[in-house]
Write the structure tokens for this entry.
Amino acid sequence: MEYSAVILAAGKGVRMKSELPKVLHQAAGKPLVNYVIDAVRGAGVSDITLVLGHGRAEVEKMLQDTGIKFALQEQQLGTGHALMQARDLVKPADIMLVLAGDTPLLQAETLKNLLEFHRQKQAAATVLSCEFNNPRGYGRIVRQADGSLARIVEEKDASPQEKALREINSGMYCFQAGTAFEALTRIKANNAQGEYYLTDILEILINDGQKVEIMRIEDETEIYGINNRVQLAYAEKILRQRKNRDLMLNGVTIMDPETTYIDQDVIIGSDTLILPSTIIEGRTRIGSGCEIGPFTHINDSQLGNRVTVENSRIKEARVGDGCTIGPFAYLRPQAELADGVKVGDFVEIKKSYIGAGSKIPHLSYVGDATLGKGVNVGAGTITCNYDGKNKHQTILEDGVFIGSNTNLVAPVTIGENSVTGAGSTISRNVPANTLAVERAEQKHLKKRK
Ligand code: UD1
Ligand code: CA
């Protein structure tokens, strides 16, 4: 048996009040539609078709080279019409999941259960349902006397008795693909919204004598759909809670999960401690035994093991094992620290390699530089890397000691084990094992009255 999935995502998402297509809005650092795709893949289904309309070029661009197929629904004439657009892309013999693109809390496990349930019942269609305290806005599940499905009625078409029903249609289904597409040819748009309702094929299938099942789930958060930015914030909160919980169960200590924001794809090793008010984003990977925070913001960076970072900003940087960073350090893109480096307070590093065991403890700017091993950069030292037109390189070889408040006017190289005197402006290369001093001799003049 082969499986496929169709995700309906052609709607505009009017209530987002946004230029951006709804399914591209992000929750916990990932676009909404990617959560649905990941849940489908997590359930072992790799043949995925996305039905797109509004903002389709943007969605296709974001998902290019992912192997996902796209169907176009030019006009949004309803969910039934939307599914029909995928007909040529799904094999009739497949078992087909049908989902919406705006339900980021859906989990792979639930889809696995749905597929398993559908197979065991040998059904033509299975609807995923849930009992809601407040069912407003959802389609209601109407059951027959024996408990089996009679039909699904949209709120706008429902009678007062039907509106009182609290079991709702999640908008997630499993179908025998060929059977579903054939039934879709028979739906009509004679309802309150003048749309082709996907839900109408269930009644058609029942009348055909096909087996239609309902799988009811308990956890209503799973099928929570995002229609506006208030709901987006709610989903974000739940996704973050899930991520924090996942990390904690895998050996990461999070002192205050309430103020810790970690994106879904971040990886953190065991026995790392995350202190309050810390944000870790994007494709960041952090090793074991680290201490991160408080008040630290890291994105798209790689940190080794036993690294400490306090009150700092790290952006697209790489940090080796045993480094200490901060408080108040700023590592910018392409900063690369080897093992055992110390970067202290008010230090900014950009596009530079800092060799093992080197120290830049206070008040420095290091840009476009290469530092060897065991280099010590005195307080207040800066690389003058930019001449107004071009950026130039600074090279400090192994064992160099830079006196406090040195200006390194690039391009410039300081040879192995050389020293610069405090307050010097160094604009010429310094050979190895040399003391370079550039400053006027101190004079003592008589003080005037
Ligand atoms: C739908 C169901 C309703 C269910 C609810 C669950 C129908 C008729 N109703 O209602 O029973 O309780 O979902 O959330 O199916 N879409 C398209 N093209 C269209 C219309 C919709 O691609 O022409 C997509 C939307 O982008 C969205 C999904 O289908 O991802 C659901 O559409 P939406 O308009 O939100 O359906 P509901 O009215 O909420
Ligand atoms: Ca909806």
